[in-house]
Design a protein that fits this description.
The chain is of the alpha/beta class. The chain has helices spanning about 30-40, 60-65, 85-90, 100-110, 115-120, 135-140, 140-150, 180-190, 225-235, 265-275, 315-325, 340-350, 390-405, and strands at about 15-20, 45-50, 95-100, 125-130, 155, 160-165, 170-175, 200-205, 210, 215, 240-245, 255-260, 280, 290, 310, 330-335, 355-360, 370-380, 385-390. The protein folds into two domains: about 15-190, Flavin prenyltransferase-like (Rossmann fold), CATH 3.40.50; about 200-405, Rossmann fold, CATH 3.40.50.10300. It has 13 helices and 19 strands. It has an eight-stranded mixed β-sheet with strand order 12-11-8-13-16-17-18-19, sandwiched between helices. It has a five-stranded parallel β-sheet with strand order 2-1-3-4-5, sandwiched between helices. Helix 1 (about 30-40) packs across helix 8 (about 180-190). The longest helix has 15 residues, at about 390-405. The protein is globular. The structure holds ligand PMT. Ligand PMT binds next to helix 9, helix 11 and strand 16.
């Protein structure tokens, strides 16, 4: 054991993982998982909930991790240190394996009432969760909503998988294989910090152009693509400003949020941040038209129907292209046909370094879904196809190109 009195003690360059263990039958697997991480040269610090200790003893995990196991929020071996903050700061990643429905719910709702949940609340490190519970609990819409919420905030999930559960049921809810959990942790630890010190300005979501106080013109953008780019940029060490239209997903942890409604508001917010930005990625679906004038009071229904005169919104990207100095400027193109032709035209017209084009008529691509299919057209003529993949993966590939364009590889 390295330092029975200290919170954290590790070799130079060694990665630290906080392994959170929660109370369910699968808690015994924490020993195996801690061992697999150790084998990969990772310093493991285990934090156990009270219920976890009913299934496996701290002593076992101490022997395997070769570090003191923390169970109590008020344990004060080093009275000048705040334990959960020290652990949270030292973590390169936090892994919760197994994670119960209860702890999932607490984290998703910001409840921090023990050593594990306070550590999770205080960390800026990536969080990986390996759920384990009965199938009925796993399928409960509340649990599913919590998982969705945590996923959209950037938490990674491994499993669960199907198998025979402790209660004898067979179904989804079994903790993932140790190898898969270790691989997920290693892939998170491997993420390069190539955007450290850079300011990344990202736009996301739709804009809503008011017709009257209750109605507006908008589009189908959920914000998922832009939020994934913001999340990926944060993971790579960037300082992220996320200018977002109205969406229903939580912001990525660590991004500076600027919330807007209309294209004009988005324009003002983006121009306000543009000068100091190093990389700008316009994933927002800015409305192309707005009502010529918005009515001050609700328009009454008329049998004759209603005609609304529309005018063009400001084209933010064109304006950014005109003012471009050292920024890497990346736009999106949402098309339903002639993808290549229209995307290349936008690259030229908007003075971009790259355009990420998606055919929004393809299944699994574009608006609302968790995946995308993108072709990147670079101003040097290169064309890079990104096959169907989760938006977070597409986001990393787009950032690979942005970093390359900036010469940061
Ligand atoms: O949000 P999701 O549900 O995850 O969906 C993702 C997405 C489909 C919205 C995203 O992948 C995408 O394609 N975003 C750009 C949508 C769009 O407005 O495309 P466009 O081809 O109409 O515009 C081209 C570029 O000009 C875009 O970068 C856009 O942000 C920008 N633009 C457009 C109009 C305008 N008035 N000002 C702009 O800056």
């Amino acid at each position: 054991m390295s330092d029975p009195r200290g919170w954290i003690d590790k070799m130079d360059g060694q990665k630290t993982v906080i392994l959170g263990v929660t109370g369910c039958i699968a808690a015994y697997r924490a020993a195996d998982i801690a061992g697999a991480l150790k084998k990969n040269g990772i310093a493991v610090h285990v934090v156990m909930t009270k219920n976890a200790q009913k299934f496996i003893t701290p002593r076992t995990l101490e022997a395997i991790s070769q570090n003191p196991v923390t169970c109590d929020l008020f344990e004060r071996d080093k009275p000048w240190e705040v334990g959960h903050v020290s652990l949270a700061k030292a973590a390169d990643a936090v892994l919760i394996a197994p994670c119960t429905a209860n702890i999932l719910g607490k984290i998703a709702h910001g409840i921090a009432d023990d050593m594990l949940t306070t550590t999770v609340m205080a960390t800026k490190a990536p969080i990986i969760i390996a759920p384990a519970m009965n199938t009925r609990m796993y399928e409960n819409p509340i649990v599913q909503q919590n998982i969705e919420k945590l996923e959209s905030m950037g938490c990674r999930f491994v499993g669960p998988v199907s198998g025979r559960l402790a209660c004898g049921d067979v179904g989804l809810g079994h903790i993932a294989d140790t190898d898969d959990i270790a691989k997920a942790v290693l892939s998170v630890l491997d993420v390069k910090k190539d955007l450290a010190g850079l300011k990344i300005l990202v736009t996301a979501g739709p804009t809503c152009e008011p017709i009257d106080p209750v109605r507006y013109i908008a589009n189908r953008s959920s914000g998922k693509m832009g939020y994934a780019i913001a999340q990926a940029a944060l993971e790579r060490g960037g300082e992220v400003i996320l200018v977002s239209g109205p969406v229903h997903i939580p912001p990525p942890r660590g991004a500076r949020m600027v919330s807007v409604e209309t294209a004009e508001q988005m324009r003002d917010a983006v121009l306000g941040e543009y000068e100091n930005a190093d990389i700008v990625i316009m994933a927002a679906a800015v409305a192309d038209f707005m009502p010529e004038s918005a009515d001050g009071s609700k328009i009454k229904k008329a049998d004759t129907g209603l005609e609304i005169k529309l005018k063009k919104t400001p084209d933010i990207l064109i304006e950014l292209g005109k003012r471009k100095k050292n920024q890497i400027l990346i736009g999106f193109a949402a098309e339903t046909d002639n993808l290549e032709e229209y995307a290349k035209q936008k690259l030229i017209d908007k003075n971009l370094d790259m355009v990420a084009a998606n055919d929004v008529s393809l299944p699994g691509a574009g608006f609302g879904c968790d995946t995308n299919i993108v072709t990147c057209f670079l101003k040097n003529g290169e064309k890079i196809a990104l096959d169907l993949a989760p938006k977070i993966k597409i986001a990393h590939s787009i950032l690979d190109q942005a970093a390359r364009l900036r010469g940061n590889v």
